Structures are given as C-alpha cells and as structure tokens.
Amino acid sequence: MEQYVDFVVSDEELNQLISKVAYVDADTAIEMIDLAMTEQRMVEIEYTSVVTPRVMTRKIEPYKLCVRNRGDAIYGFDPNDNTIKLFYIQNISEVNVLDEKFSPRWLIENELR
After folding, report:
1. Which domain holds residue 36?
2. Beta bridge partners of 61
3. Which secondary structure element, helix H or strand E, spans residue 99, and what is its range?
4. 54 and 47 in contact (C-beta within 8 Å)?
C-alpha cells in the first residue's frame, strides 16, 4: 500500500525545486534556457546524443537559441573541452539552471523570441 506525506515548502525551496525540473518538454526547456541566458547562469542538461544513442550530462554556458534543420537548438560553450556545441532541444530531457554565473565570451541571442 502506498503512503503519502503532506509537507510544506517555503517559496525559496519551491523556486529551487522548479529550477531543477526533470524530463522537461521542449517549451519548458526553452523557457529555462532563455532565463539562464538572460541571467548569464550556467545550465546543466541531460542530453541524448544525435551521433550516439547515449544520454550525457553537460554543463554549458548558453549562448544562442535558434532554429536549425532538425528543429529548435541551443549553442552552448562546454568548459570541459573548451568547445561550442549544438544541442537540439528535442533531445534534452532535463534542464537545471545553476546558480553559477558566467562572463559571456560572445554575444548572447535568442532567435526564438
């Protein structure tokens, strides 16, 4: 038998939970990434690779939301290997907007607005 427990969270705790949404839909992922771009905050994404069917976690500096031939996408700088990478929104299953800020290396733009 399942048991449920009621609990109360503060507004701050609720905002922290909201910023760590798992298994987001495309619209929610875009909104969260757009927020991170506006506030110049790092983003951690869980992403299924187009090249290999592996699920990877990446921590990126988000720079550009755009439309490409396969759909909406984000260009982000991956500080682990110092490269710009393209991530298709449809392949992102989790988004976590981190508290960690970054100083932009390039212009930040959103072509989807």
Report:
1. 22-110
2. 77
3. strand 92-101
4. no
Which pair of tokens denotes residue 64? 């550009």
Confidence of residue 11 (pLDDT cuts 50, 70, 90): low
| Residue range 70-93, pLDDT digits in tens | 899 999 999 999 999 999 999 999
Q: What is the pLDDT of residue 59?
A: 97
Supply 79's token pair: 């500080």
Start-to-end C-alpha separation, the chain: 47
How many Cα atoms sit within 13 Å of 9 on the Cβ side? 9
The encoded tokens of residue 112 equal 């989807």
The pTM score is: 0.76
Looking at the domain assignment, is residue 12 inside a domain? no
Q: Which helix (H) or strand (E) holds 73?
A: strand 71-78
Find the mean pLDDT for residues 53-59. Answer: 91
What CATH number did the domain enclosing 74 receive?
2.30.30.100
